[in-house]
Amino acid sequence: MDFLSALKIAGSGLSAQRTRVNVAATNLANAESTRGPDGQPYHRRDPILTAVPFEASLAEATGAPLAAGEPGAASTAASVEVTGIHEDPSPGKKVYLPGHPDADPNGFVTFPNVNPVNETVNLITAQRGYDANATAVETLKSMAQRALDIAR
Question: Domain for residue 99, yes or no?
């Protein structure tokens, strides 16, 4: 694997982890939002991460189409990309608050389906993934610098 390929892999990991952090932070910020623009409580979101195989990256770089039956079509991933944001359709928790402006006729308010503990764990794991990718980038930079020093 060459230097630029390794850097691309680590860079895609940094981008994916940044998206995970942003989505988890948005979920936490809206954990008590009982009414959104559509009048419904906030629904928690999750990023959808997809591995991009090496052959697809190669085809994109060279502009050549990838044949379906090429040998090695099931190789390891070369990068990761965020292909979308999924909205969790599960119902939120109902709390009896008859004086709340968003209470139903029975006095129950539906709160978002966001669990702050789960979102905090998501933030921690995303941060650790980001740190690991940042360390990989720093290691690659260090290796490139050493290679340049040897060449002198």
Answer: no
Type of residue numbered 94: K
**Residue span of the structural domain in which 19 resides:** 3-31+45-87+114-151
Q: Is residue 106 part of a domain?
A: no
Q: Is residue 123 part of a domain?
A: yes
Answer yes or no: are the C-beta atoms of 19 and 50 closer than 8 Å.
no
**For the whole model, what pTM was predicted?**
0.78
Residue 122 forms part of a structural domain: yes
The pair phi, psi for residue 87, each rounded to 5°, is -95, 125
Span 11-65, pLDDT tens digits: 999 999 999 999 999 999 999 999 988 889 999 999 999 988 866 655 666 666 6
User: Cα(127)–Cα(12) distance, rounded to whole angstroms?
Assistant: 15
Q: What is the tally of structural domains in the chain? A: 1
User: Position 72: which residue type?
Assistant: G
| Mean pLDDT of the 118-135 span | 95
